[in-house]
Amino acid sequence: MNYNTFLIRYGIDPKCFKNKELFPIKTDTGYLYYLEQETEIVRKCPKCNRTDLHIKAYYKSKMNITINANETDTLLIKRVRFQCNKCGKSFTPKIEGITPYSNISDKTKSNIIYDLLKKETFTAIANRYEISVGYVIDLFDKTFTFVPRGELSNIICIDEFHFSKIYDQNYCVAITDFTNKKLIDIIKNRKKAYLEEYFDTFNSIELNRVQYYISDMYDAYRTIKQKYFPNAIHIVDLFHIISQLTTAINSVRNIVMKDKNKVIPKSKEHNFMSKNWKCFLCRTKDIPNKTYTYQLTGEVWTYEELVFHCIKLDPDFLLAYNVLQDIFRYTIKKSNEDIGKWIDWLSERLKSSNYDVVRKVGKTYQKWKAEITNAFTKEARENRLTNASAEGMNNKIKTMTKIAHGYMNFDRFRKRILLIYKYYNEKERMAI
Questions:
Q1: What is the mean pLDDT of residues 28-34?
Q2: If one looks up domain 155-237+386-431 in CATH, what number appears?
Q3: Bridge partners, residue 338, by sequence
Q4: DSSP 3-state assignment of 248?
Q5: CA distance 185 to 208
Q6: Can you tell me the distance from the alpha carbon of 273 to that of 250, in angstroms, rounded to the nearest whole number?
Q7: Average pLDDT, integer, range 325-332
Q8: With contact defined as beta carbons under 8 Å apart, do 176 and 183 qualify?
């Protein structure tokens, strides 16, 4: 590669050096290039502006100039320090493309900053450029001092995810734009007081823009909706409606399975319920079309036959299972009134159970009747107004947090996540 082309590639001015040719030295990680800083250029003293100078000393400095993941290139520069003959000021001339007191080229810094927009950990980036993790983090903090949130859309999803064991940051909240599948912001805390403090910063025009507000059945989310989004329709996410009941059914399954008066230990019922718990939480039509052979007797049952057999071992087990299937089989009702009556019917059945975990679900359905009703309206079902996009977003956030072995600094975590998703959204738009 031509000498000038080589240095320009790394964002460094060739006129700053004596070299006219390059003699790369192969290392374990890349190449080492030796350069000597030019001494014949007329320079002025930064203090008195005179040109009467002399060379005071020479010293060597290493400069990381890596620009890709395949190799780590280094410049070994023989730097020169001048001294003014008039005022005695000593200085080292600046090399264009290299920030003073830095051992990383400006071009390399730009590449690191670009990599920080990708789904990579600070450690992975540091290893690529053979620099410290602390340097990468410090560069990120200095470069991205503030990252604004996105604007609220006509449909927003609000959902929490686990962040840290630190009390104030145990659960963070992600706000997602349902229409455009974008991450709007991440809120540090899901407590009502903190959420109110956050939404107090929004103007009324933006708040009134929201037509649908989708959340789970967390009391603080209802309070926030009523206070800041009075004109929006509040929809409880269908996944959380169902998961409330499936969690209860799973608890009942465990109770029945361990009740020796109902299930003999190591029986076919006990073994099947223990190993095939998912069969009791899905649609009947989704039960695997498989057979189960009980080894002690050689009996052969279909999975469906055993599911029906097991749920009949306890009336309340059967009750909860049937309610779940009724929700799965739901068809769009004609009016909100019809949906409300149907929810009342479901909740009363659940509240009649002998198990607290099942009765609790019935009470929850009654408490959130209006919001659950909104989830089953024709418009909500046809437009699939659920928190699925927010849940998907949160899973990606959780994955990143896990890969990075957790973030202790919430502000840094928030900025990183917002930047990454902004980068990939823009990348997808450009591809279209």
A1: 85
A2: 3.30.420.10
A3: none
A4: helix
A5: 18
A6: 10
A7: 88
A8: yes
Beta bridge partners, 236, equal 215
| Greatest pairwise CA separation for the chain in angstroms | 105
Which run of H or of E encompasses 56?
A: strand 53-64
Q: What percent of the chain has pLDDT over 90?
A: 56
- The amino acid sitting at 263 is V
Q: Are 39 and 95 in contact, with CB atoms under 8 Å apart?
A: no
- Name the residue ranges covered by the structural domains of the chain: 3-103, 155-237+386-431, 239-382
Instruction: Please report the DSSP string for 212-240 in residue order.
Output: EEEE-S-HHHHHHHHHH-TTSEEEE-HHH
- The torsion of the CA quartet 33, 39, 44, 47, rounded to 10 degrees, works out to 70
Structure tokens at 270: 């006990």
Measured distance between the N- and C-terminal CA atoms of the chain, rounded to whole angstroms: 36
Does pTM surpass 0.90? no
282 CB neighbour count, 10 Å cutoff: 15
pLDDT at 68: 63
One-letter identity of residue 53: L
Would you say 257 and 237 are in contact if contact means Cβ atoms under 8 Å apart? no
- Sorted by sequence, the CB contacts under 8 Å of residue 109 that are 6+ apart come out as 99, 102, 139
317-328 per-position pLDDT tens digit: 999 999 999 999
Nearest in space to 222 (alpha carbons), one of 186, 195, 184, 241: 195
Q: How far is CA 310 from the centre of its chain?
A: 40
